[in-house]
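Aim 2 progress update. The chain analyzed this quarter is reproduced below.
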Amino acid sequence: MRYPILFFLLLLVLSAAALWLLFDRDMRELKARLHGRSQIVETSIGPVEYGIAGDGHAVLAIHGSGGGFDQGLEFIGPLAEYGFRLIAPSRFGYLRTPAPERFTLESQADAYADLLERLGVEKVVVLGGSAGALSAMQFAIRHPQRCEALVLLVPASYAPDRRPNESAAKSRFAETVMMTALRSDFLFWSAIRV
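Predicted structure tokens:
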């Protein structure tokens, strides 16, 4: 009876090690592909990583969960060939944009405005995908003079009968678990690869 249990435990450990090695290899390959495709600018709220593609009419592409500037560029990359300048920041906590200790959707929107100011861009069409829609909406509300249009792709939003902070206040534990999962490269990788 003891040997089957030991065999099972050994198999479990070896499987976990193999999975981790595959994850590590994929992450190294991804980082190598992303290297050199972005810059970092210092804003009043902190550093913001961004990527740019194309020339012409400016589009601010705000990514959802599970990506960064690269996801923003992937959303609308083909537009770069049709006379658009794509500006894709990494949201707070993604890739090389650190999460400030205390941040809000409003401060994220202000960081976008500061990024545009530093790039010398006056107005943009704002595209927010999934979880990026929340800060895209705040950008349009807080900086209407910079927003020519707002486009939301599969927008994440709050339930209409709740205020934004109301649902989070009800369950800090659930919020912590959800945010930890959303920030986990390993969980996203596992969902796609395994």
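The mean pLDDT is 87. The first strand starts at residue 39 and ends at 43. These observations will guide the mutagenesis experiments scheduled for the next reporting period.
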